[in-house]
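Dear U.,

For the methods section draft, I wanted the exact inputs and outputs in one place so we can describe them consistently. I've listed the two proteins in the order they'll appear in the manuscript figures. Please don't edit the token lines directly; just add comments below if something needs changing.

First protein:
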Amino acid sequence: MLAMPEPDRAVLARRAEIIAALRKIAPGEGVIDGERERRAYECDALTAYRQTPMVVVLPETTAQVVEILRYCKANAIRVVPRGAGTSLSGGALPLADGVLLGMSKFNRIVEIDVADRCVVAQPGVTNLAISHAVQGHGLYYAPDPSSQIACSIGGNVAENSGGVHCLKYGLTTNNVIEVEFVTIDGEVIRLGGKHFDSGALDLLGVLVGSEGLLGVVTAVTVRVLPTPPGARALLIGFPSVRGAADCVAAVIGSGIIPGGMEIMDKLAIEAAEAFVHAGYPLGAEALLIVELDGCAAEVDHLVARVEKIAADHGAASCRASQSEQERLLFWAGRKAAFPAVGRLSPDYLCMDGTIPRKEIGAVLLRMKQLEAKYGLRVANVFHAGDGNLHPLILYDANKPGELERAERFGDDILRLCVEVGGVLTGEHGVGVEKRDLMDVMFDEIDLAQQQRLKCAFDEANLLNPGKVFPRLCRCAELGRMHVRGGALPHPDLPRF
């Protein structure tokens, strides 16, 4: 059973007073306190877990964010930042005694700097809106999560989101060059800049992927790239998952870095094809989508090389896009795979673990064995090029015990990822979904060090508590000293 921090009864008793104070900071429609209206914020895209927030605040300016956080710090009130609510790990799960700080009104693009090839955007701007804003200049923003039409750039920063084209062009952390954020103390801090790099500690790298535990993002500067002069996509059908997995490793091993490389298994292929009609090979056990981009001659050369590699690994079919419209149709099926699979089952859990590419085939075979163990089906749709798995575990929450079985199934998949040399998350974050598995990957010293970093920004643990860390400690406890045999460690050091 998912455990969250116990509500502070003293804070709940002051709810009316807190709401009145927040209305002064964010007047008009800036505060949502009605029970029915608050339910719209009770979960993110991990809908298995729900909790109605004490109050929702929608600031419009950085100055309002500063005041809200200062007020919450002074009154020991917990705060959960929220972007578009597309998080798949429960990162924006509210607290019963907490302020849910929604950043949806921060929805403007502040600056398009073509000379420096960057865009300054508020955190509520959607991922896809950035590419739309610069496409007239022949530019685009490379990280493209499947939810890019809805997910916000602030949420992308919080979770270090990936996407189809991140194999070649990097995750969010590789494409963000500056972030403005507000600490729980109400201090506005800027990290990074339009310059190439910083000689100081990489605090920008620390903030990207910090899941709202360190501060609230109020502005993001992202790098935009020239749109490739051309691109073609290949649909490659395989009679076995192993063949598709081995082909992935062979393509990368040959020195080719595709713009994108995705795998879908038979269940996902059938669901996506029925949903989009993209021309996917329905008889295939696995489908590999490979996109090559660059100038026309380079693309044609790479297409021919990948076609040969696929044939050498037993491909049953191989079809290359002949137009931009057809290329986009190939990807439409992949982008719509998650909602398409939703037609197969009332509910599903979307997992997120990353493994070495060479282990893809073996891990998918182990998943089949786990399907039999738990009596639940899995549809696999994932970023094959960087080994970022997204197994969709199908279940029915209305059937007693199925959610619990799906959770145990998911836990076993993530343990398997770590077992083969991978990690618990690639782009969805830890949130609450993987929180209690963190000690599978990290020992006590690792986790304590991570919590010390959290304490440096938020010593009272008011920002997004209950996420990421399986066991919370007070900051003072993390600094304790162990005395063994009555002797202090390193007695030669001065003590203060």
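Second protein (the one for the lower panel):
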Amino acid sequence: MSTLKPRLHIDNISPHVRSAQYAVRGELATLSEEYRARLAKGDTDLPFDQVISANIGNPQQLDQKPLTFIRQVLSLVENPKLLDHEDVLLNQLDYKTDVIERAKWLLSKVGSVGAYSASAGVPAIKESIAKFIERRDGFPADPSKIYLSGGASSGVNTLLHVICAGPDTGVLVPIPQYPLYTASLSILNARCVPYNLDEESGWSTDLEIIRASHDKAVAEGTDVRALVIINPGNPTGASLPEDNIRAILAFAAEKNLVVLADEVYQTNVFEGRFHSFKRVLRLLQQENPNKYDHVELASLHSVSKGMIGECGHRGGYFELVGFHPEVEANIYKFVSITLCAPVVGQCVVELMVNPPQPGDPSYEQYNAEYSAIFQGLKERADALHAAFSRMEGVECGPPQGSMYLFPTIRLPPRAAEAAAAEGRSPDEYYCIRLLKATGICVVPGSGFGQKKDTLHFRTTFLAPGTDWVGRIVDFHKKFMDEHR
């Protein structure tokens, strides 16, 4: 009988992986999946009959329907033999001629979605993305500066690997933030330099707070190289006005910082309009010759969010502006190590940036489906916001964008005592109790970072209908009464 023990154990694997935290798929998410499995097996002992996964921006898990145009095109690029039967597609399966034309075009550029593409992505798809960026911003885009990625997360991973040279490298990250950034920096053994967003002004950026965080980190020996902006925000939902973006870019120019603009929620804007960092940078460069020419900007986008919601297809891209050619060569080398982004995901990116236009056979259906999804998200966001406004000790600004609300919760002292007895933070304790009582899974604010002595939770508003919102209201009243 062998006496050898497993070579790997918790004390000898990477300490950087061990220390990384990713709350949106942590303990609460695991418990919610256990409940979901129990319900699927007919368990009737739980106090609810449905699990609502409001912890993660995963639209199609929560019944957001895929857009017909996208899925019809994908069906043809996945199974090109269907194109041998155009009459059946058109006359019996309700495909439109532009669906067939787009599938043929994609196949002519890709060859087969089962084959690797060029490392940075299919050239024709990169050209489509460049045209989209030009239409959006009013400034030219260079396809050679665009890199297809396996969702925006893969692009973030690439960029942080190149930026982070050692344990003294620092990256400014907003708090609260999407935990991808802190987790990735932990794994890279680099330093997160947090800066608090201003909740009182709708979670906007406060340049003086950013400056203070930067200067403190530099004084402590940190080589601060980059500044992360999530716009519209995750988890806050804030959508930045242009003057905020101008101030951020001015600071980046002054301190010689790389700007990482996470813009995956750019179509999820309910108040005002989306302002891309690329457009504002180009305006500043026009208005101030030479002053902003050295600014390095990487902008990221994804098919996972917005009205597309194709998370599982893992499609995304990032565009580089102002990077040194030798640095770009190493970014290309890094993406080459993973060969290429999923080619079907690349096709979805092309369909996102180049949707049917007025007059196209698929336009009316596409526009109706797209608009219905947007309106449904807005209605559910408003319903959640209205519910929070009725709940004792809860404050939440109006929904601005993205897929989330991030309310402040003020809990009675006895709730903090009960949480401490379980070895939990008060917001984590609240969210666990909410899940166990209602089946609704949200994420405690501590999973994203929050200002000292404040408590929050993040919820999506993706779940269909608004009935589940009432379950939160009822739970909250009982929770507060129990812990007074």
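Candidate sentences for the figure legend, describing the second protein: The mean pLDDT is 89. The radius of gyration is 23 Å.

Thanks,
Y.
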